[in-house]
Design a protein that fits this description.
Elements: E1 2-7, E2 28-33, E3 37-41, H1 46-54, E4 60-64, E5 88-92, H2 103-106, E6 124-126, H3 131-137, E7 141-146, E8 154-160, E9 163-168, H4 183-190, E10 195-199, H5 218-228, E11 232-236, H6 244-261, E12 266-269, E13 275-277
Parallel strand pairs: 3-4, 4-5, 5-6, 9-10, 10-11, 11-12
Antiparallel strand pairs: 1-2, 1-13, 2-3, 7-8, 8-9
């Protein structure tokens, strides 16, 4: 599996001089399997760069959302493969609130988008209670678990050729209200994963103001990685106000914590362009 990070920021894009190295685009991560299938997690503004990089390749694209919040869908109208007949694209809606149609394409209709004529000709958006069944029929060994986030959402685990990746963004491990999923359940879901990509938007000094906003502390993500005995933790969904220098410090501190705790766990703060092959 080849994992690529196209957008790593949370809440809203954060372009500017202070975010150049880690990037300012919002959530989008791709996992390529065997060169002919690409699974895309979330369609934040990072998906625009992904579309440009794909060029004229020929592969099936499967787009799966963690949830429908704006920072996870807003790059989709500018995803170039939508407007090229050579690409076979499958997108999967997550049922939330009053959404009846696919949120990815609803945002491309008037008055939210310049013209309904911009809607792609070749497109499939499935609104299933459990898209895992469809994805498994296409050869993906994938499972999901509910996250603790306002409005709901899901994390995903992909296994392929004895390797595993967990994508778990927009998840508050210790929310102030009743948990949808508990820490022990998350630990079992992530157990022995090669890669754990986890929400790490906040630090202790962001609290208590942002407690209940649906995101985890860096320290909580580290504790989950330790409890689940994963091999590599990738800290993800950075706060839009977090500068490159601050993210450097977060990475140094997290690595120091694992060393002090006696964990042989690699830790990386996600940045645009990061590519991991397992």
């Amino acid at each position: 599996m080849e994992i690529k990070f196209w957008g790593v920021r949370g809440s809203l894009p954060a372009p500017g001089a202070s975010t150049v190295r880690y990037g300012g685009n919002t959530s989008c991560v791709s996992i390529e399997l065997d060169g002919d299938k690409i699974l895309v997690f979330d369609a934040g503004t990072g998906i625009r760069e992904m579309g440009k990089a794909l060029g004229e390749r020929n592969a099936d694209l499967y787009i799966l959302l963690s949830h429908n919040h704006w920072d996870h869908i807003q790059g989709y109208p500018f995803f170039l493969p939508l407007f090229k007949d050579s690409w076979n694209i499958h997108a999967f809606e997550i049922r939330q609130g009053k959404v009846m149609l696919c949120s990815l394409t609803e945002q491309m209709d008037t008055p939210n988008f310049p013209s309904s004529a911009c809607l792609p000709r070749q497109y499939e958006c499935r609104i299933d209670d459990n898209p895992m069944i469809y994805l498994k029929s296409k050869g993906f060994n994938i499972s999901r678990i509910a996250t603790n986030h306002p409005g709901g959402g899901f994390a995903y685990r992909v296994e392929h050729n004895g390797r595993s990746v967990v994508y778990m963004t927009d998840n508050e491990l210790e929310p102030p209200s009743k948990k949808t999923t508990g820490f022990d359940e998350f630990t079992r879901f992530c157990k022995n994963a090669d890669i754990l990509i986890h929400d790490s938007q906040y630090l202790e000094n962001d609290m208590p103001l942002k407690h209940g906003w649906g995101h985890s502390l860096v320290s909580q993500a580290c504790k989950l990685a330790s409890a689940a005995e994963v091999k590599h933790l990738v800290l993800f969904h950075h706060d839009p106000d977090r500068t490159d220098g601050e993210l450097d410090v977060i990475q140094d501190n997290a690595r120091a914590w694992f060393k002090k705790n006696g964990d042989n766990i690699q830790c990386t703060v996600a940045f645009e362009g990061l590519t991991i092959n397992i």
